[in-house]
Design brief:
alpha+beta, eight-stranded antiparallel β-sheet, 8 strands, 20% strand
C-alpha cells in the first residue's frame, strides 16, 4: 500500500495531549475530510467519547445513489495513540424501496458497507496491513492518513469504472460475492434486493437461502428464547415476500 506521506507546504501542529481529546480530533477530521472530498455532505455533529470519535457523511453518485463514509478513531496505549479506520456504505433508493416492501418496515439504511483497507487488500491482492495508528497530537500524520484513505476510496471506485451507476452496481455486486471475513458486510434482505435489481437473480435467491438457513439454525439453537422465535417468524415472512416479489 502507498505510504502516508504528507504533501509539501503543510505545517505540523502540536498541542498538549491533555487538550487534544476525542472531540478536537474528531472536529479536525471532519473538517479535513470535507476538504479532501468536497462533494461529500458531512453529517451534522459527530460522536465523541473519551477514547474514541466517529464522523461521517454522504457523497451523491447519481440521483438515487449515494456513497457514505464513516471515519472512526479509537484510542490506544493509554491515550497516547489513536487507530484510524474508515468504512464506506452503499445507499440505493430503489433497493431501499424494495427492501422496505418485502421487510414490512421502512428501510432507508445502506445495504452494504466495507472497510477501506481490507477491501483494498482483497481487491488488489496487497499484503495484509493493520489500520494506521497516529499520535493523537500529530495533525500532520492524521492529514496524511486521511489523504491515503481518500485515495484508496477513489482507487476502488475507479477499478469498477468510476462514480456512475454502472460503477456503483459493479462494486455492489462484487461486495455481494466477496468473502464475509474481509471487512465487507452485506445486509441479507437488502443485498438480495440489490442483486435482484442489478440483474443477478440467482445470487438474490442464494442470499435469501443463506439468510433463511442462518435463522433456522439460530432458532434450533435457541428454541426457548421468545425474542429469537419472534424475530425468526418476522425474517421468514420477509423472505417469503421477497421470493414472491422476485418471481
Amino acid at each position: 500500500m502507498r505510504g502516508c506521506r504528507p504533501s509539501g507546504g503543510a505545517s505540523k501542529v502540536k498541542t498538549s495531549k491533555e487538550a487534544w481529546g476525542a472531540a478536537q480530533l474528531g472536529k479536525h477530521t471532519k473538517q479535513r475530510w470535507s476538504e479532501l472530498r468536497p462533494t461529500t455532505i458531512m453529517r451534522q455533529g459527530m460522536h465523541a467519547a473519551s477514547r474514541q470519535f466517529a464522523v461521517g457523511g454522504e457523497q451523491p453518485v447519481v440521483p438515487g445513489l449515494r456513497l457514505g463514509t464513516s471515519i472512526h478513531g479509537l484510542w490506544k496505549d493509554a491515550g497516547e495513540l489513536a487507530m484510524i479506520r474508515v468504512f464506506a456504505q452503499l445507499h440505493d433508493e430503489r433497493v431501499a424501496s424494495m427492501w422496505s416492501i418485502v421487510d414490512g418496515q421502512e428501510r432507508s439504511v445502506h445495504f452494504a458497507d466495507f472497510d477501506i483497507i481490507s477491501t483494498s487488500q482483497l481487491l488488489f491482492g496487497r499484503p495484509e496491513q493493520t489500520w494506521p495508528v497516529i499520535a493523537i497530537d500529530d495533525v500532520e500524520h492524521l492529514d496524511a492518513v486521511l489523504r491515503m484513505y481518500s485515495g484508496l476510496i477513489d482507487e476502488i471506485w475507479l477499478h469498477f469504472g468510476g462514480y456512475d451507476r454502472a460503477g456503483f452496481e459493479a462494486l455492489a455486486l462484487w461486495l455481494i460475492s466477496a468473502p464475509r471475513d474481509a471487512g465487507q458486510t452485506v445486509h441479507g434482505l437488502g443485498g438480495a434486493c440489490a442483486a435482484f435489481l442489478y440483474g443477478v437473480r440467482d445470487r438474490a435467491f442464494e442470499l435469501l437461502c443463506d439468510l433463511e438457513s442462518s435463522w433456522n439454525e439460530r432458532l434450533a439453537n435457541e428454541p426457548d428464547r421468545p425474542v429469537v422465535v419472534e424475530v425468526h417468524r418476522s425474517v421468514i415472512g420477509s423472505i417469503e415476500r421477497a421470493r414472491e416479489a422476485f418471481g
